[in-house]
Design a protein that fits this description.
Layout: H1 2-27, H2 31-53, H3 59-63, H4 65-86, H5 92-99, H6 102-114, H7 120-137, H8 146-168, H9 175-196, E1 208-210, E2 213-215, H10 218-243, H11 245-251, H12 254-267, H13 273-290
Antiparallel strand pairs: 1-2
Helix pairs in contact: 1-10, 1-12, 2-9, 2-10, 4-8, 4-9, 5-7, 5-8, 6-8, 7-13, 8-10, 8-11, 9-10, 10-11, 11-13, 12-13
Length: 318
């Protein structure tokens, strides 16, 4: 239950991020600048705790350097950049639908690799969850630019990497350390992308509407950086390690439900009956996936997909 609670808490924190960042976007911030600010803030917040849990021994990070690099560049920076590149040419709801196909993509990858169909409850749960996702987000409409669809697909693959790397990372590397190193490298990568002009960076340092009041620009930046980024990623990685990739990825769909609820409470965006039905369908899908019976051979878990193996990390010398 602790893993499920952490997974849902991570989904709530991620889901609240949209409502927190929206006042910045309305004030004139570009999405690229907002993403950079949230990840850079998280890097500053988590850096010292990450070093503390490592006992200031960076050898653990060096030994897992390829895992950390892949996590930072693909799961954090790459996913964000690809998503915002997608919504530049296709509707946001369409990009979200493609991005959140990650749990189903993982199920299909396991099916293709094992050449063995997943359990019926997993297939039924996948169908229910995706149906609920469509109902909550709603049809996007508009033109479907091929480049936008490709970028949305890349974002979906980044989410897959987030779940797989979160589980497969060396157990001796604490979630706080993996997230902290990922934030630092991710912020540097996003900053470099911003300097090239590939992703427009613009920020307006003024007061913004925030939770029914007026606050300085740094208040939503700090909130989204600490709660919706630092806490969300650390809690998410911990939940993945406790629950495994499959269940954690389906719990991640709760982010869409929480985003709608937070937008309703904070921004006054109404939730219709169709969205409520979609939320219930997502929850039902998660329950069905949770009912999956464990494989008799732990090595043959349904979501055992190919990744680069990480060698065991020797214990640090005294």
């Amino acid at each position: 239950m602790a893993g499920i609670a952490l997974g849902l808490a991570s989904g709530l924190a991620f889901g609240a991020g949209g409502a927190v960042v929206k006042p910045l976007l309305e004030a004139g911030w570009t999405p690229g600048a907002a993403v950079f600010a949230r990840i850079a803030t998280a890097a500053l917040v988590v850096a010292v705790p990450a070093l503390w849990v490592l006992r200031f021994d960076l050898r653990l990070l060096w030994r897992a350097r390829w895992t950390v690099l892949a996590y930072a560049l693909i799961a954090i920076a790459g996913t964000q950049v690809a998503f915002y590149a997608a919504i530049a040419t296709i509707p946001v709801s369409t990009a979200l639908l493609i991005e959140y196909l990650a749990p189903v993509a993982l199920v299909l990858a396991a099916w293709a690799r094992r050449r063995h169909a997943p359990q019926l409850v997993v297939l039924a749960g996948s169908a229910l969850a995706i149906t609920g996702l469509v109902l909550v987000i709603g049809p996007g409409g508009g033109a479907l630019d091929p480049a936008g669809l490709i970028f949305a697909g890349i974002a979906m693959l980044g989410v897959c990497v987030y779940y797989v790397m979160g589980e497969r990372a060396d157990a001796s590397l604490p979630p706080m350390a993996l997230a902290g190193a990922g934030f630092v490298i991710g912020a540097l990568a996003l900053g470099a992308v911003g300097l090239t002009g590939l992703v427009p960076f613009a920020a307006v340092f003024t007061d913004v509407a925030f939770f029914g009041a007026v606050a300085p620009w740094w208040v939503p930046v700090l909130t989204v950086g600490v709660v919706s980024t630092a806490f969300a990623y650390v809690a998410g990685i911990t939940a993945i390690r406790m629950l495994g990739t499959r269940l954690a990825s389906f719990l991640g769909l709760s982010e869409v439900v929480f985003a709608a609820i937070v937008a309703w409470l904070v921004l006054g965006e109404a939730i219709g009956p169709v969205q409520v039905l979609g939320g219930l369908a997502i929850l039902a899908g998660i329950v069905l996936v949770r009912l999956e019976k464990p494989a008799s051979d732990p090595a043959a878990r349904a979501l055992d997909i190919d990744v680069v193996p990480v060698p065991p990390t020797p214990a640090p010398r005294a």
